[in-house]
Amino acid sequence: MIDRSGMAEFLRRRRESLQPEDVGLPRGSRRRTIGLRREEVAVLCHISTDYYTRLEQERGPRPSEQMIASIAQGLHLSLDERDHLFRLAGHTPPLRGADSEHISPGLLRILDRLHDTPAEIVTELGETLRQTPLAVALTGDLTTYSGPARSLGYRWFTDPAARQLYAPEDHAFLTRMFASQLRGVATMRGPASRAAHYAGLLIARSEEFRQAWNNHEVGIRPKEAKRFVHPEVGLLELTCQTLLDPHQSHGLLVYTAIPGSESYERLQLLSVIGSPRGQGAQTA
Predict the structure, then answer these.
(1) What region holds the HTH cro/C1-type domain (predicted)?
(2) CATH number of the 105-273 domain
(3) pLDDT tens-digit series, residues 109-160
(4) Chain CA centroid to CA 239, Å
(5) N or C: which end of the chain has fewer CB within 10 A?
(6) More reliable by pLDDT, 92 or 25
């Protein structure tokens, strides 16, 4: 059963404890509000201001599990705080572990500060959970995919458009790497895991994947320098640094270019041009 008063008070306290800079928002020169405004929280949670306001006022329908998950992420809640909010709303908290998509507050705080850098938070299966605006400009909005196609490794073998942003001479290595990564995760998580399920789907759909899978290669790591072929600015060679959250099996990938290089100049241009046409628009 929902605890309306408890949930309303918890949401108010969490909102008031956050500052705009904590969540990547500008403070403004005439700010008097303690913590975040309700409309700011609504934007972060991808819900209407009216809906969120009703929750703080102990009104409105009982929020769904999907809505609570979105609010927990928008308010940068820890796992314990997320689970508490689920219980206040009368829901059973989601399972923790490898399949969890709740991003830790610490990882979100870092991402929120990378305004001028391509960066994304991904799962161990290569599913993009969050991107900075410049990352969207680089690869398109990768959060729009659904189902197995959320995984870049899955799309690599099933969607020819997934390869268009990568230099052709790198394709053979990436094929081996994606198969190797999926095998490693499937072995680690077991035959009932999503990784094993994706492998089964790819074995049935892709001859290229079957050949790479049957080689039983493991431990093939991404190269530090990644090359992207953007439809507007051309080839960009970017260094990728990864920060891992071992508790959630998430990685923060940050892409940078060597200052003064041609890729650096093209990255600056990309921040003005915007996202590549047609990328990240498909779902499956």
Answers:
(1) 35-82
(2) 3.30.450.180
(3) 999 889 889 999 999 999 999 999 999 999 999 999 999 999 999 999 999 9
(4) 19
(5) N
(6) 92
Q: Looking at the structure, give the CATH architecture of the domain made up of residues 4-88.
A: Orthogonal Bundle (1.10)
**CATH 3.30.450.180, the chain: domain bounds:** 105-273
**Taking the CA atoms of the chain, what radius of gyration do you get in angstroms?**
21
β-pairing, 225-230 vs 250-256, is unpaired
Per-residue confidence (pLDDT) for residue 275, from 0 to 100: 56
Measure the CA dihedral 82/88/92/98, to 10°. 0
Query: What's this model's pTM, rounded to 2 decimal places?
Result: 0.82
* Residue 117, token pair as written in the block: 């850098």
Dist CA 169 CA 176 (whole Å): 13
How do residues 50-107 score in pLDDT, each as one tens digit? 999 999 999 988 999 999 999 999 999 999 999 999 999 999 998 877 778 899 999 9
Tell which residue, 77, 6, 5, 15, has the closest CA to residue 42. Answer: 15
Q: In this structure, how many other beta carbons lie within 10 angstroms of the beta carbon of residue 100? A: 17
Contact 195, 249 (CB under 8 A): no
- In the chain, where does the domain assigned CATH 1.10.260.40 lie? 4-88
* Cα gap 128→151, rounded to integer Å: 8
Asked if 222 and 177 count as a contact pair (C-beta separation under 8 A), the reply is yes
